[in-house]
Amino acid sequence: MEARAFWLLLAVLALGSSGLAEEYVGLSENQCKVPPKERVDCAFPKVTPEQCNNRGCCFDNSIHGVPWCFKPLQEAECTF
What we know:
- Mean pLDDT is 76; it is low at 10-21.
- β2 (58-60) and β3 (69-70) form a beta hairpin.
- The protein has 2 helices and 3 strands; from the N terminus they run αβαββ.
- It is an alpha+beta fold.
- Helix content is 28%, strand content 9%.
């Protein structure tokens, strides 16, 4: 039974992280709308979406030749 649960968890993790083009966990979508040429690298080669998001960064692997894990735009601060 434990082996079955392990393989199920492994399958879910593999399906959940494969081919996801955009991940914005904990960030607004607008913060991650960084033009490709303006992206500032935020991680190491072959970083996973989860590892990238754990660093507080955006992940988008849909464009080759630019960082896939990059620093988000800063939200505009409210002024009163």
